[in-house]
Amino acid sequence: MEIELSSLYGQDIYTDRGVYVGKIEDVSVDIKEKRISGLAVRDINPNAFDVGKRKGVIIPYRWVTAIGDIVLIKHVRRRIVEKEEEEGGREREKKK
Question: What's the domain count of the chain?
């Protein structure tokens, strides 16, 4: 599938569960591999990602499931929370 990179700028991103993520601000391209490697997203919905004080995130392009009037990605909130809980548990174990 071919797409023009300029067509991605400003598009809304949603998860496959319908959660608004943000807007595409930039596209990261791997020149050697001749492929898109990630999407820089701004105006992040805090219900989609816990970004803290950061203004945006880079979404790995492998998470993209569809591109049309909007961009759909795999739903990832649960994975991020689980990863943080695992890391928090490891830190508590180290302190013991």
Answer: 1
